[in-house]
Amino acid sequence: MVKKAASKTTEKPTTKKSVDSDRFGPSTIRDEVILEVKNLQTNFTTKWGTVKACDGISYSVKRGETLGIVGESGSGKSVTALSIMRLIQSPPGEIVGGEVILNGRDILKIPERQMTSVRGGEISMILQDPMQALNPVFDINDQVGEAIGIHQKLRGKKRWEKVVDALRKVRIPAPQTRAKDYPHQLSGGMRQRVVGAIGISSNPDVIIADEPTTSLDVTIQAAYLRLLKQIQSETGAAIVFITHDFGIVAKMCDRVAVMYAGRIVEMADVREIFNNPLHEYTKALISSVPKLEEKTGRLPQIEGQPPLLYDLPQGDTFAPRSPLKFSEEDALIRPELVEAKPNHFVQLSRCSVKDFDKYKDMVSYG
Ligand SMILES: Nc1ncnc2c1ncn2[C@@H]1O[C@H](COP(=O)(O)OP(=O)(O)OP(=O)(O)O)[C@@H](O)[C@H]1O
Ligand SMILES: [Mg+2]
Predict the structure, then answer these.
(1) Is the beta carbon of 250 within 6 A of some atom in ligand 1?
(2) What pTM value is reported for the model?
(3) Percent of the chain with pLDDT over 90
(4) Is any ligand 1 atom within 6 A of the Cβ of residue 309?
(5) Span from the CA of 24 to the centroid of ligand 1 (angstroms)
(6) What is the DSSP letter of 353?
(7) Separation of 51 CA from ligand 1 center, angstroms?
């Protein structure tokens, strides 16, 4: 239940500008929704039963905006992203419902052949592990060039120039020399930049970055994220930024959606989330943010275990971990995502939201 999306319009002047020295870079958000995900549902069939890894996800992103997706391991962040890209392996996975509106049409409905040019062209995904994303037996020119060949139909010298240009855009020094290197000849940071170069080579409208810096050390990570923001301000791309680090969200994102057990439990502007979190899970994630200087790449430690998705409790799936007091009946109610305050959405449950009574009129079970 994401806020009503503005219909696709031509680019409007900047409506919001935030320049914050503590962030990886400013955002220039345009009032044009570029990607809208509506009630997306993806299931996996496993021997233990059906896993609802993405269970009715809805959000939208505007041109120039960065939306963070946070949540513990296994909460469905990557499955949601791969569903948007139509890269879910079937079987065992299947997109069973919802819409993904990109540039005005539902890309879940277009033929796969057409999707091949949408992928990497209009929307691209930068993966977590550069060694997995890069093929060790091809040089960098081949791999960046492949994407450029597919989407821009370029060959020979023109393609080579685009490759060098893409490497230059991600600030790889001596791009003409580096283009002839193989992945193992580059440092981790440089490899991640190459993956970034592939991701941005066709100027996509939307970049999904799935934990793009997990394998990098802190300084290189900061430099890479700053670079992503710079590229965004040059191209106006929308970024969906997946991480389990709320500290990075604060510096990188404009808005954030918190995922738990395949659903969004809270979504709001970054500042609003940090200042007034409503859901107990969000509060726990925020309080587990390590100081950036001492960042170790650890997962947030919060009480209890993430639930098994094939054996979810009925009703409020967070109830077993919630520190609040509530009745057994309360825990059996499946909460709705409501706009509790302007642009601040929360999955409203007596089990997970301390201020439930303040907002209870918004739901039938209040
Ligand atoms: N191939 C698969 N077969 C069966 N279940 C799967 C498969 N891929 C994902 N899942 C299920 O989907 C859930 C969500 O996985 P996903 O990769 O989206 O988590 P994530 O939030 O990206 O976690 P992480 O932070 O570790 O990357 C998993 O917990 C698992 O139950
Ligand atoms: Mg993941």
Answers:
(1) no
(2) 0.88
(3) 62
(4) yes
(5) 29
(6) B
(7) 9
